[in-house]
């Protein structure tokens, strides 16, 4: 069986989700983690997870969205997470995004809230699904300093050096749709230990002019098999094993 470890099903039309779920079985897809980005997105993902057994909710707030929240809204968010953590498989999509957040105070706010998410992860033993755009080195620093334990670094395939650092801390790296067409990512994945790898589609984001769907996990698996020279079935087994050791 295979898992899509990072998607945003709350951003898909429900009839499209149902259509996709009907075909999941054909490609052995047994789990899709739907990551949350805002208040309404958390509610929607928890709802989807209750309705469809294949879907698991990750709860959290996207780093750029939390910049807009004031202190009392942040308190409200964390109360909500404490209450809803039982309905979730993980905490995500959380982390740092310094692409559109260039002011130092905003970056500091993101870091402080990431630290709270790390505490939440440790308290309830739930993995963190980490976003790190333009902040890959800084994310690793915050995770290491705060002794995060269960970590999936989402789409963390740009730097061999940082990928290696991540594995040395016991973290997992997930690889997305750019594996299909980005030679740099292909190269980095080829030399990355398969025991620390997960796959994700980030659906319904657009890659190479196409809207991703969790069913694309099959093309990722095939591509990985070609790059790693490991038979698909064996790969599927290994990736499932990785998934279950992080998400147990
Ligand atoms: Zn995402």
CATH level 3 topology: TIM Barrel
How many distinct beta strands? 10
Oligomer: single chain
Instruction: Please identify which CATH superfamily we are dealing with.
Output: Metal-dependent hydrolases
N-to-C SSE string, H for helix and E for strand: EHEHEHHEHEHEHEHEEEHH
Main-sheet strand order equals 1-2-3-4-5-6-7-8
Number of helices: 10
Measured distance between first and last alpha carbons: 16 Å
| Largest β-sheet summary | 8 strands, parallel
In percent, how helical is the residue content?
A: 40-55%
Instruction: Indicate the CATH class.
Output: Alpha Beta
**Architecture (CATH level 2) name:** Alpha-Beta Barrel
Summed over residues and divided by their number, the pLDDT gives a mean of: 97
- Assign the structural class, choosing from mainly alpha, mainly beta, alpha/beta, alpha+beta, or little secondary structure: alpha/beta
Rg from C-alpha positions?
A: 17 Å
Shape: globular
- Count of individual domains: 1
User: Any low-confidence stretches, pLDDT <50, length ≥5?
Assistant: none
Bound molecules: zinc ion
Percent of residues in β-strands = 15-25%
